[in-house]
Design brief:
It is built from 6 helices and 2 strands. By secondary structure, it is mostly helical. Strands 1-2 form a two-stranded antiparallel sheet. Helix 2 packs across helix 5 and helix 3 packs across helix 4. The longest helix has 27 residues. The radius of gyration is 18 Å and the shape is globular.
């Protein structure tokens, strides 16, 4: 198959990214289903784990996840109700950081360990220099797609 045409390359890009995102979702769901957590719950717990004791605001989670405000609000309410996160006291729900509870930190540590295992599994046969080129290229594509959204919409 000739991938030199822009149309064919774009079709290949769509197929590969769609398939990859589905597989990532399946991995998250399969491993977090025992806690009743969706892929979005898992993502938010992992981001909070990465943030450490300072936590993250809903605004920061919005920026990291690139989803709508209502979805982040719902997910954080559900995580709080399950006892996995708590929000700092005060006014302004979007400005007060969320932090992991001990139960949430336990699950987030499991998520983190799983991410490292999967990352090693899927990239084990790829030389580090090729991975660096891949991530630089993917970052450029993501940036350019964001610019295209602004330009064409």
């Amino acid at each position: 198959m000739d991938f030199s045409s822009g149309t064919t390359r774009f079709a290949q890009y769509l197929a590969l990214t769609s398939s990859t995102l589905k597989d990532i979702g399946k991995l998250k769901s399969a491993n977090m289903g025992k806690y009743g957590l969706s892929a979005m719950h898992t993502d938010c717990l992992w981001h909070l784990y990465q943030a450490g004791s300072k936590g993250l605001t809903q605004r920061a989670l919005l920026d990291l996840e690139q989803v709508d405000r209502a979805q982040i609000s719902r997910v954080m309410r559900e995580l709080a109700a399950a006892g996995y996160v708590e929000q700092s006291p005060g006014e302004g729900a979007y400005k007060r950081p969320y932090r992991l509870t001990d139960a949430g930190a336990h699950i987030a540590a499991e998520v983190h360990k799983l991410i490292l295992e999967i990352n090693h599994f899927v990239s084990r046969d790829i030389p580090p220099e090729d991975l660096a080129v891949f991530y630089n290229t993917l970052r450029t594509i993501a940036t350019n797609l964001n610019k295209a959204v602004k330009y064409y919409t």
